[in-house]
């Protein structure tokens, strides 16, 4: 598995999911977010986030979504009126799954995803605001490992790049010039996770991580790639130098 930072976004084919949250309503949006969104062939938008994109799409600064999904409890009538003739609108009523999880299922149904013509799924937002929403986003990314098979899911907020690594061997490469070097790898499953790493200031060798023991936060990168091997999924966080 490999990942990347935003400066390399134009080198890859991505499906982007714009997630509801405070960042969806901040204007102007980070320039790199707009670049990632506009370059993506598949642009999914959760219903509440469509409200934040409305003025940008009206002004031609961002491409219209290709799909808006959700239970539509937060989609404003003005937004629906504008977008309903421009993209697919899919109502997903299952209350046992988050809107992000349901959106990832829709992404997985796309022909280009099934044919492995998409390199990454990128989540914009979803990691700011309420802590329970942040944890729900991580859970959705964990579920996404199964939904999207081998396609990595990467999330950006104002200062972090976050991905959930599947169990097994993972090599992650990145543009270190865009990172502060501060990072962490955190067990998310509710049992101890055995980890071996390479490329960090503080590496581990068959070391057990758990929330009632040790987790790795405030670690540091030593190069432009890292290797991790674990017997269960890990959350990898990388701090960005500048706002995306």
From TrEMBL:
Segments forming domain Thiamin pyrophosphokinase thiamin-binding: 168-234
Entry annotated with the keyword ATP-binding: yes
Keywords of this entry: ATP-binding, Kinase, Nucleotide-binding, Transferase
Keyword Transferase listed: yes
InterPro entries: Thi_PPkinase, Thiamin_PyroPKinase_B1-bd, TPK_B1-bd_sf, TPK_catalytic, TPK_catalytic_sf
GO MF terms held by the record: ATP binding; kinase activity; thiamine binding; thiamine diphosphokinase activity
Alphabetized CDD domains for the sequence: TPK
GO biological process annotation, one example: thiamine metabolic process
Protein name: Thiamin pyrophosphokinase thiamin-binding domain-containing protein
Species this chain originates from: Steinernema carpocapsae (Entomopathogenic nematode)
Lineage: Eukaryota, Metazoa, Ecdysozoa, Nematoda, Chromadorea
């Amino acid at each position: 598995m490999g990942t990347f930072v935003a400066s390399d976004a134009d080198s890859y084919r991505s499906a982007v999911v714009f997630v509801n949250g405070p960042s969806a309503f901040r204007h102007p949006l980070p320039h790199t977010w707009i670049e990632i969104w506009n370059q993506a062939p598949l642009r999914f938008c959760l219903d509440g986030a469509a409200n934040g994109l409305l003025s940008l799409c009206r002004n031609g600064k961002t491409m219209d979504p290709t799909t808006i999904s959700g239970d539509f409890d937060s989609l404003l009538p003005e937004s629906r009126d504008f977008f309903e003739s421009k993209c697919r609108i899919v109502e997903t009523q299952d209350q046992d799954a988050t809107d992000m999880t349901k959106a990832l299922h829709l992404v997985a149904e796309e022909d280009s995803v099934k044919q492995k013509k998409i390199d990454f799924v990128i989540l914009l937002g979803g990691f700011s605001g309420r802590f329970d929403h942040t944890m729900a986003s991580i859970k959705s990314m964990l579920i996404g490992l199964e939904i999207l098979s081998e396609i990595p899911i990467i999330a950006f907020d104002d200062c972090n790049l976050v991905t959930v690594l599947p169990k097994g061997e993972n090599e992650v490469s990145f543009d270190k010039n865009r990172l502060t070097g501060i990072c962490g790898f955190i067990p998310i499953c509710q049992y101890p996770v055995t980890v071996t790493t390479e490329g960090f200031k503080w590496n581990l060798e068959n070391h057990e991580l758990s929330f009632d023991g040790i987790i790795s936060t405030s670690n540091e990168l030593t190069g432009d790639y890292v290797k991790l091997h674990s017997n269960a999924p890990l959350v990898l966080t990388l701090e960005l130098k500048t706002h995306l």
